[in-house]
């Protein structure tokens, strides 16, 4: 049976470390602030935004949650971002995705000051990080990397397969693993012999948004499996159940180590959002980044 990678526990310990750094900032009269903008009433997004706000306060930061109606115009959203870009009590800005159809996500992301872009979605940060500079690393891939390094130590030379090529997870994940000297394959819906590709991987990261798509028979014995998927499945009882993009029961029989859903990557995403907010606050105050913060130096 595979070892369980406890993202929930790791995230809690990371938040403790963040809280200690924030306490040091308080002594210098600095309180990092995170602004989260939610447009519309999507129920899942409301849960995430509530959890983000709660955990932001728990680590000693200020939380500013802006809930806007579904009908908000792009112009009004851009005006709010402009206000937050110029607000000295705000070091991090996150616009919850997905946005309503009448708002262009790229235009909105481009409007955020790159120094305050704690999601790492702004092209300036994507470019910096892709070329080895110190751009903000997107929260979910950063969380996956921290779990992998904790589990495996040095990743050099490992064969990594990233299934999924989104701008939010797949592409930055492949870049991060390449920076860690892995041999990286990015696979997707058009990949030939997908199962065969997966079976070659020492590290398998799955971020496709298809419930339980990857089965145990796709996995190399002993491989480390990171499941980024969070899918709500309606059960016969009428209750919803959360499952990943990996079929956990069969995968756990083959893998060396695997993340559960829930309690794996999800909590790490929020902890890394707080980490990116801390890093942004340190940079904006011209303070050094502590060496324990990975891959940001
Ligand atoms: N600008 C932006 N940045 C994001 O980082 C962002 C976003 N938009 N839009 C939506 C996705 C999704 N996301 C999650 C965060 C935490 C959990 C999480 O904590 N999940 C729990 C379960 C929570 C539950 O019960 O639903 C777990 O996996 O254990 C999940 C998903 C951040 N996202």
UniProtKB/TrEMBL annotation:
It catalyses: (6R)-5,10-methenyltetrahydrofolate + H2O = (6R)-10-formyltetrahydrofolate + H(+); (6R)-5,10-methylene-5,6,7,8-tetrahydrofolate + NADP(+) = (6R)-5,10-methenyltetrahydrofolate + NADPH. GO terms for biological process: L-histidine biosynthetic process; methionine biosynthetic process; purine nucleotide biosynthetic process; tetrahydrofolate interconversion. Residues 5-119 form the Tetrahydrofolate dehydrogenase/cyclohydrolase catalytic domain. GO terms for cellular component: cytosol. InterPro entries: Aminoacid_DH-like_N_sf (IPR046346), NAD(P)-bd_dom_sf (IPR036291), THF_DH/CycHdrlase (IPR000672), THF_DH/CycHdrlase_cat_dom (IPR020630), THF_DH/CycHdrlase_CS (IPR020867), THF_DH/CycHdrlase_NAD-bd_dom (IPR020631). Its EC number is 1.5.1.5, 3.5.4.9. Pfam families: THF_DHG_CYH, THF_DHG_CYH_C. Residues 138-284 form the Tetrahydrofolate dehydrogenase/cyclohydrolase NAD(P)-binding domain. One of its GO terms (molecular function) is methenyltetrahydrofolate cyclohydrolase activity. Keywords: Amino-acid biosynthesis, Histidine biosynthesis, Hydrolase, Methionine biosynthesis, Multifunctional enzyme, NADP, One-carbon metabolism, Oxidoreductase, Purine biosynthesis. Pathway: One-carbon metabolism; tetrahydrofolate interconversion. PROSITE patterns: THF_DHG_CYH_2. NADP(+) binds at residues 164-166, 230. PANTHER family: C-1-TETRAHYDROFOLATE SYNTHASE, CYTOPLASMIC, C-1-TETRAHYDROFOLATE SYNTHASE, CYTOPLASMIC-RELATED. Belongs to the tetrahydrofolate dehydrogenase/cyclohydrolase family. Catalyzes the oxidation of 5,10-methylenetetrahydrofolate to 5,10-methenyltetrahydrofolate and then the hydrolysis of 5,10-methenyltetrahydrofolate to 10-formyltetrahydrofolate. NCBIfam families: PRK10792.1, PRK14186.1, PRK14188.1. Homodimer. This is Bifunctional protein FolD. The gene is folD.
């Amino acid at each position: 049976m595979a070892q369980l990678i406890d993202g929930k526990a790791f995230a809690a310990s990371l938040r403790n470390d963040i809280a200690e750094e924030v306490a040091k900032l308080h002594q210098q009269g600095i309180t990092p602030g995170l602004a989260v903008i939610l447009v519309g009433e999507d129920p899942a997004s409301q849960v995430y935004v509530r959890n983000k706000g709660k955990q932001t306060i728990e680590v000693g930061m200020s939380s500013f949650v802006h809930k806007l109606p579904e009908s908000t115009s792009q112009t009004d959203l851009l005006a709010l971002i402009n206000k937050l870009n110029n607000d000295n009590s705000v070091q991090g800005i996150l616009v919850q995705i997905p946005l309503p159809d009448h708002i262009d996500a790229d235009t909105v992301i481009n409007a955020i000051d790159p120094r305050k872009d704690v999601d790492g979605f702004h092209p300036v940060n994507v470019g910096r990080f892709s070329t080895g500079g110190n751009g903000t690393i997107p929260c979910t891939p950063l969380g996956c990397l921290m779990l992998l390094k904790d589990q495996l130590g040095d990743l050099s030379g490992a064969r990594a397969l990233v299934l999924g090529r989104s701008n939010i997870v797949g592409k930055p994940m492949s870049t991060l693993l390449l920076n860690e000297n892995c041999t990286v394959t990015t696979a997707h819906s058009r990949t030939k012999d997908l199962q065969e590709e997966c079976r070659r991987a020492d590290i398998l990261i799955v971020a496709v948004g298809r419930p339980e798509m990857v089965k145990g028979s796709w996995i190399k014995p002993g491989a480390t499996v990171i499941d980024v998927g969070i899918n709500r499945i309606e059960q016969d009882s009428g209750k919803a159940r959360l499952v990943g993009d990996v079929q956990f029961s069969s995968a756990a029989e083959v893998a060396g180590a695997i993340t559960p859903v829930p309690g794996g990557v999800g909590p790490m995403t929020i902890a890394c959002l707080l980490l990116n907010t801390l890093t942004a606050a340190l940079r904006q105050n011209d303070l050094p980044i502590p060496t324990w913060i990975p891959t940001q130096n």
